[in-house]
Predict the structure of ABC transporter ATP-binding protein.
Amino acid sequence: MLLEAKNVSKTFRSSGRGSSSVHAVKEVSLTAQRGEFVAIVGESGSGKSTLARMLLDLHPASSGSIELNGVDVRSMNKAQRQDFRRTVQAVLQDPSGSLNPRKSIAQSIGEVIRLHKIADSRRDIRTKTLEALELVGLDPAEHYIDRFPHELSGGQRQRVLIARAVALNPQIIIADEAVSALDASVKAGVLRVMADLQERLNVGYVFITHDLPVVKKVADYVHVMYQGEVVEHGPAREIFENPQHEYTATLLDAAPTLDSLTESSPAADSSAV
Ligand SMILES: Nc1ncnc2c1ncn2[C@@H]1O[C@H](COP(=O)(O)OP(=O)(O)OP(=O)(O)O)[C@@H](O)[C@H]1O
């Protein structure tokens, strides 16, 4: 299982007269695979979200290609596309309105399970939903499944978003600022859930963030983006210990310390969410 960006660029043409186009992503190449935690870091406006949207096949690339196991998303047939939509999942940050406030957790997760034909009877869908909630540490799941988003904390809602992705048995999760809005201890709990899923289900992550302490804690491999380009990439340890690019060094200098994220709290401990 390999998700690949090959020399992808994205240019947004301006609609107004006189203003120029925005080259949001410039010739970026990267790979993501099962079991691996790949981070994309960079300041606001560096093109991270645009790259994420291309990896999810939500934005077409202006040039270059996105490929899953060597098949270009543009040339996929219906079955291949459906498979892509299931195996490559997105987890975005909750404040962006990812959960419908009028739907219970059972409805929000149940509808994607039905859509992707993971289960079809009401009973099987509920069982699958309960399993997914337990996997993200919302345990006992019966306690959460019939609640509405406003009845949950921010950390619990973020876990629900992960559960909704996990219910589809994904192989890669693209997480765009998925923990950035959370307080440090809650953030640590959600990160632990993600690491736990990596270990138990062999899920791979493309983790997009401007939050370097988080990257240091979880990433295997790091791509540093600056003004639409990947200016440096390599194993996380090398990037943190010996940054080669001036911009990376500046980013690291400006980052807060890791202290607040190092205390342990078990993934299954939903009291800490
Ligand atoms: N739909 C769009 N139309 C026009 N320009 C866009 C569009 N989406 C993004 N951009 C521009 O592309 C550039 C990269 O934006 P992008 O959101 O990908 O960066 P980012 O690194 O994810 O930033 P942030 O962390 O603030 O979300 C920015 O200059 C942005 O204004």
In short: The beta strands are 2-12, 22-33, 37-41, 63-68, 71-72, 88-92, 172-176, 204-209, 221-226, 229-235. Confidence is low (pLDDT under 50) at residues 260-273. The longest strand covers residues 22-33. Residues 12, 22, 24, 42, 44-50, 210 surround adenosine-5'-triphosphate (CB under 6 Å).
